[in-house]
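Bench log. Compound arrived from synthesis this morning; before running ITC I wanted a structural hypothesis for how zinc ion sits in the protein. Inputs:
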Amino acid sequence: MGRLTCPRTISLGAYVLGALENGERAELESHLEVCPSCRLELDRLASLPDLLSRLSADEAERLGPGRSAH
Ligand SMILES: [Zn+2]
């Protein structure tokens, strides 16, 4: 298989959530500059929180209408 995977992609989730310590974060950031695989994964992860908040907002709206219908 020609698929390129990097073990560091595991840390990207914590990175996106801001859960990494300063040292780890700096290390990961310099790794990102040389690792296209991680950059791609980071791109995907970066859009997740936004997606999730949109989904829950949508769900909240769906749960809401029952109140206004008397
Ligand atoms: Zn990597």
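What the model suggests: Helices lie at 9-16, 22-32, 36-46, 48-63. The chain has one domain: 7-63.
ITC booked for Thursday regardless.
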